[in-house]
Amino acid sequence: MKSQSIVIPTLLLILYANTGISQSQYPVLKNRSDSDEIINQLSEEYMPVMGVWNMRENELEPEEYKKTLDRASEDSPFNLLIPFLRFSDKEVVDDVVYNAVKGAAEYAVEKNLALVPDLDVRLARRAFQQKYPEELQEMLRIREVSLSQSENVETSIITIKNHSDHYTGGDIPKYYSLQSSLLRVYAYSADSIGIDPESLEEITDICKIIYSSEDSVRVSIPPLEGGKTHASVMLSFTIFYPDIFAPHLMEFQRNIIEQYANVPLAGACKDEWGFPPYFPRYAGENTYDFWYSRHRAEKYAERTNGRELLKDCLLMARNFKGKEMERQVAINHFREMSLQRNVELENDFYDGVKDVFGPDAAVTVHPTWWPYPDQNEMKKNGLDWWAAKRDWAQTDEIVPFGARTAMSKKWGSSIWYHMYYTNFLSTQVWSSVLAGGRINYLSFQRLYDPEVMRAENRIRLLNPISQSPMDCPVAVIFGHHAAMNWTSPHFDDVGMDLQNLLWNSGYPADLIPSSEIDNGSLKLDNEGRITYGDQKYAAIVLYHPEFDKKSTSDFFLKAANSKTAMFRVGDWTKDFYGQTIDANQSLPETMILKNDYRDAYLKILEILKDQNISPVTPATEDLDSRYFTLRDFNKVSKFPPTTGFSRLIDGTVIHIAGTNDISGDPIQKEFEVNGNNVKIDAMGVAAVRLDDDGNLEALAAGSLKSFQSEKFELILDKRVDLALWKGKDGKWKGIVQGYEGDIPKKLLSITKNWERIKLPSPPENSER
Questions:
Q1: Which of 67, 249, 305, 540 sits most deeply, having the most CB atoms within 10 A of its CB?
Q2: How far apart are CA 629 and CA 425, in angstroms?
Q3: Total of domains in the chain
Q4: Which 3 state secondary structure label does DSSP give 716?
């Protein structure tokens, strides 16, 4: 049978506030319709099998990349590779890198592979510094010292030595400090409660710099009159990193993308964007750090009616007596600036890729850095995961499953992709499928494990029939500003304890920040249900909405008579701007207040059962976080097991089995789909969708032997890997994988429209 490649009409671009499933494809770079060759790869019209290619120095040499691409094409199911262009002393704007990517992309097309390289500005930081030396990121470090009434007091301030990440592995300088500057010194009277604002005095001019280098400064402060007890020294360290608020950053990023305009790429990627890495342990005693720059200070003044960021950084660092509300509001603005600017940069990159490579170009790899929604990520990017545009939801490492499923709803992504690379890869391969996801293999050679590859080959049969994400009947909507404001008792709390209870009970829940209300992504449908993309919720929990905006109140008041049961956990006393809020007046009476999330959880279970919403396989496992405990990580989130079942929004029921044999265990099950009983005999994966009348709409299974429902029966003489579904035209089409000989007559009796693909096996002596 001829291998088919269908070019689909251009789809609407995804908007910032996505309205539902609008599945993006990556471009068809090579028309296969005239070829009789049977290949390993699925057509571009289906969601891809994705992996990361860590390009090596030797692959910059002419044609050296061919060996890697030959292996990926001939011995694997991959059809989309993400080249990471992280070389020891070369940047992505250098001709040698451009020429290698161009040659590799042209060769990849012939090998039925699509390339989506990393074109991030951090891979050109030398070029950025050379062109815009005044637009580098600064770290503002504030050190508080006790003053003496009779002697000079000296203090040394040293910058953070290691802001490095996965972009800094070579000989190009890391995110080191290039310059230090004493910006200001304040003296004041303070006690354990806070600073007396009436005592505040700037004393920069009378302080003396004893020693100064690019990464440290020693300052001498003279004795002062007036009983002042403390001083804060404010130092700026300029980092070898583009200023997030640099006025030319977007233009420079666009120029990188445009440099590759004549290369046959399927898109481009941006990975773990945001401020340089920072962990709480970097601060130290009496030390406070803020991402700062002159450009940020100007934007801060614009949004706060002329307030000075430098002075407000001291207010944010140390409580001022009588100015508690003022401090909270300053933090709200500062944090939201980080969120909004990083979203702006992410989305301009997305739009730039579409402008250069076409509307179907794929923008990939994850906005998540620290793979948990906590204070580390808040400082990095404002916790922007849900608002940073991607064509398919993208996460990595140990990001909680509720965030993954929610992001798939936001971006209309029927499948979410999760970059993974630890020793527990085989477990994550199967559990991810159970929650509507796939692994993005880092590096792609990790799929060359024979058992894992057989598992992936079975799993990919689901891609053509997976038209919607996992069904999550509950949403936990956490107060984004309360979680990010370090003066809040709910700081660093996004409701993961409630999430874990729900997932562990077999009721998967989406995790969504309340900022998704403010940007219009959470909506009310015509039936009066609260929705996120195509997900309609039976219940939602507004979790600690302190500091939320009026948009939150307006949304839920409008939803007062919603068919979605609404709960609130925690009080709401102040809005984003510090104004007093009466939660009982600002939220509908129909929203049930529970002071403890456990009480809300128990009531939600009652409601789900009353609505006859049955649970799926409970998420009983804990994500492995041992690697992250080295960095003071002790959080837990639940994930599904490697055998069980789940439902997609469109009613598709998926069974997976990969616990005993990584390549797939037997599935001999009778189960219910849309109120109808079905029976199946398969291996590893089995997915079924029926219409309202019980007619088969879609079937996918590894090593299928038989399938029976009331209105459809298929019993095969030999087991077959297959996917079968009805297209939009109502006609059957299917895929057969790795079958030797003629297509079985029982399959041809259903449709003649079968596409054949090979069953790839890993190469000998493969690198894993």
A1: 540
A2: 19
A3: 4
A4: strand
